[in-house]
């Protein structure tokens, strides 16, 4: 797949009242150019992805793991994820700041037979040193574009009620379906709920927008 140079909103920027166009302009003025591309299995890629996962968990990110996360466990997770990407069951995207892998997101495409129109967003993670620079939203837009290219018309995702990225997702047009309380343990202990989001994309979104006019 071709590389993409792009910028976008930051994962940890508080939601504001500015229109989307104004927000994008503000982000673009402070975001560095990124190269976003799908990642394939390789020892150095596995190592960098593992570093990001361990760092995010240590800083309280709810991404299905507990702190402390052993490097072996992180590596095993990415071994499986990158193998699935090799089978075209998912796309693992990376955002590169020069030689540094700054962030990642996964687009899950391996849906049940009765849901071929749906894809899921998972494992959106940014290094602490690169937050506030527009990387997470850039990854989200790239993932959405790839989902449309794959013929998907619906995206779904979930995020933790406490410390999650709900403000980012809502700015990007995702709709809150509801909350499940006490869904998972936080990395350092204690329960948190999860928020379920969805977004129509591609032709379905265009048809819905046309019908609303």
Structural description of this entry:
The chain has helices spanning 20-30, 43-58, 71-86, 135-149, 166-171, 202-212, and strands spanning 4-6, 34-38, 90-97, 100-108, 118-126, 154-160, 175-185, 191-200. The protein has 213 residues and is an alpha+beta fold. The protein has one domain: Gcn5-related N-acetyltransferase (GNAT) (Aminopeptidase, 3-Layer(aba) Sandwich), CATH 3.40.630.30. It has an 8-stranded mixed beta sheet, sandwiched between helices. A hairpin with a 2-residue loop joins strand 3 and strand 4 (100-108). The radius of gyration is 17 Å and the shape is globular.
SSE topology:
Elements: E1 4-6, H1 20-30, E2 34-38, H2 43-58, H3 71-86, E3 90-97, E4 100-108, E5 118-126, H4 135-149, E6 154-160, H5 166-171, E7 175-185, E8 191-200, H6 202-212
Parallel strand pairs: 5-6
Antiparallel strand pairs: 1-2, 2-3, 3-4, 4-5, 6-8, 7-8
Question: What are its keywords?
Answer:
213 residues, alpha+beta, Aminopeptidase, 8-stranded mixed beta sheet, 6 helices, 29% strand
The helix-and-strand class reads alpha+beta
The CATH homologous superfamily is termed Gcn5-related N-acetyltransferase (GNAT)
Q: Helical stretch count? A: 6
Would you list the SSEs in sequence order as H and E?
A: EHEHHEEEHEHEEH
Strand content: 25-35%
Mean model confidence by pLDDT: 87
**How many domains is the backbone divided into?**
1
How would a crystallographer describe the biggest sheet?
Answer: 8 strands, mixed
Q: List low-confidence stretches.
A: 1-19
- Helical content (DSSP H or I, runs of 4+): 25-40%
Global geometry: globular
Under the CATH scheme, the architecture is: 3-Layer(aba) Sandwich
Number of strands: 8
Question: What's the N-to-C terminus distance?
Answer: 35 Å
Which strand order spans the largest sheet, edge to edge or round the barrel? Answer: 1-2-3-4-5-6-8-7
The CATH topology is given as Aminopeptidase
Name of the CATH class: Alpha Beta
Which oligomeric form is depicted? single chain
* Radius of gyration, whole Å: 17 Å
């Amino acid at each position: 797949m071709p590389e993409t140079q792009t910028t976008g909103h930051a994962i940890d920027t508080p939601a504001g009242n500015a229109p989307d166009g104004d927000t994008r302009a503000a982000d673009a003025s402070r975001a560095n150019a990124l190269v976003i591309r799908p990642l394939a299995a390789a020892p150095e890629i596995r190592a960098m992805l593992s570093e990001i996962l361990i760092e995010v968990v240590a800083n309280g990110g709810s991404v299905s793991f507990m702190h402390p996360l052993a490097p072996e466990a992180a590596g095993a997770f990415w071994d499986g994820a990158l193998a699935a990407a090799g089978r075209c069951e998912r796309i693992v995207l990376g955002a590169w700041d020069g030689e540094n892998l700054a962030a990642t997101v996964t687009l899950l495409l391996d849906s049940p037979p009765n849901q071929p129109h749906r894809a899921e967003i998972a494992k959106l993670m940014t290094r602490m040193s690169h937050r506030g620079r527009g990387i997470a939203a850039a990854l989200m837009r790239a993932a959405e574009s790839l989902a449309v290219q794959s013929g998907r018309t619906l995206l779904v995702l979930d995020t933790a009620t406490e410390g999650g990225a709900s403000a980012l997702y809502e700015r990007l047009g995702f709709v809150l379906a509801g909350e499940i309380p006490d869904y998972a343990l936080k990395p350092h202990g204690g329960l948190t709920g999860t928020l379920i989001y969805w977004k129509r994309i591609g032709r379905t979104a265009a048809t819905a927008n046309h019908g609303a006019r």
